[in-house]
Write a structure and sequence with these properties.
Length: 276
């Protein structure tokens, strides 16, 4: 367990507070998990963001009439802190009985509070249900590797030694799998996700990638660190000219978390998959 998470509300009984309470937000420093991966804030080999989508966002108009919407929050991958997910949900619930003059006022409040917790500017978009519904759902790009015939016997820890490549061939491709699963390091609840890999480098053996992804199945870690571990293991193996790894996780408690890590400065999409 991350040492800071022991003091968070995750896994504990919590009072439901329905009026604006920004102190509910619980930041967790990224430094400890970076250190596990041999990284520091100064040596991050990637850029990127964590997209959080909130499907249980509601507040009051000045008239007292409630509004529902969907919130999109963009947290920089190099922010000093992540925000513990249950505290994020409790904070958002504290808006339920709170009036705001208009949507812009709510967006400004959210940006201020979340940026203070993350330690870096957090992007905020409040989106109407019609807007999100019109976008529909998308499929991940490239080849799905889930139908490959593999044998698996280890699910406890990620096994980068399973990964294989042909360094005599340089390819550019996108591959993905929907078989990513890990466990919350605090509550041990399952976290289900889809992971995509886009790269130019030594040709990655697809079956070995699938075996590696499945090896996360009983691993305990936060969403962000799982994606960072996959990125680093592939970077070491492929020595790519460019590499992007991202995961789209299934929501829990009205929130989904979608980390993106890349060697490139990208205009990253935030499109829902069928399980989201």
């Amino acid at each position: 367990m991350h040492p800071a998470a022991e003091h968070s509300p995750l896994g504990k009984s919590s009072e439901y507070i329905a009026t604006y309470t920004p102190s509910l937000l619980f930041p967790i420093p990224r430094t400890a998990k970076w250190a596990e991966l041999g990284l520091t804030a100064e040596t991050l080999p990637y850029t990127g963001v964590d997209f959080w989508n909130c499907f249980e966002l509601s507040w009051l108009l000045p008239s007292g009439k409630p509004v529902v919407a969907i919130g999109e929050f963009t947290i920089p991958a190099d922010s000093p802190n992540i925000i513990e997910s249950k505290s994020f949900k409790l904070y958002l619930n504290s808006l339920n009985q709170t009036p705001f003059a208009d949507t812009a006022s709510l967006e400004a409040t959210l940006a201020k509070d979340l940026s203070a917790a993350a330690g870096k500017t957090v992007g905020v978009r409040i989106r109407s249900l019609n807007e999100v519904a019109a976008e529909g759902v998308v499929a991940l790009p490239g080849v799905c590797i889930d139908d490959l015939d593999i044998s698996v016997s280890n699910y406890e820890q990620p096994r980068p030694e399973l990964l294989r490549c042909d360094d005599s061939r340089i390819v550019e491709e996108s591959v993905h799998s929907h078989l990513l699963k890990s466990n919350c390091p605090v509550t041990s609840q399952p976290d289900w996700g889809s992971v995509a890999v886009e790269y130019r480098g030594a040709a990655l053996d697809h079956a070995s990638l699938l075996e590696y992804i499945v090896s996360f199945r009983q691993h305990s870690d936060f969403h962000e660190q799982c994606v960072e571990r996959i990125f680093l293991d592939l970077q070491r193996l492929l020595k790519p000219e460019k590499l992007t790894v991202y995961a789209r996780y299934v929501r829990r408690g009205g929130l989904d978390i979608n980390p993106y890590r890349s060697t490139e400065e990208l205009q990253l999409p935030n499109h829902r998959l069928v399980r989201q």
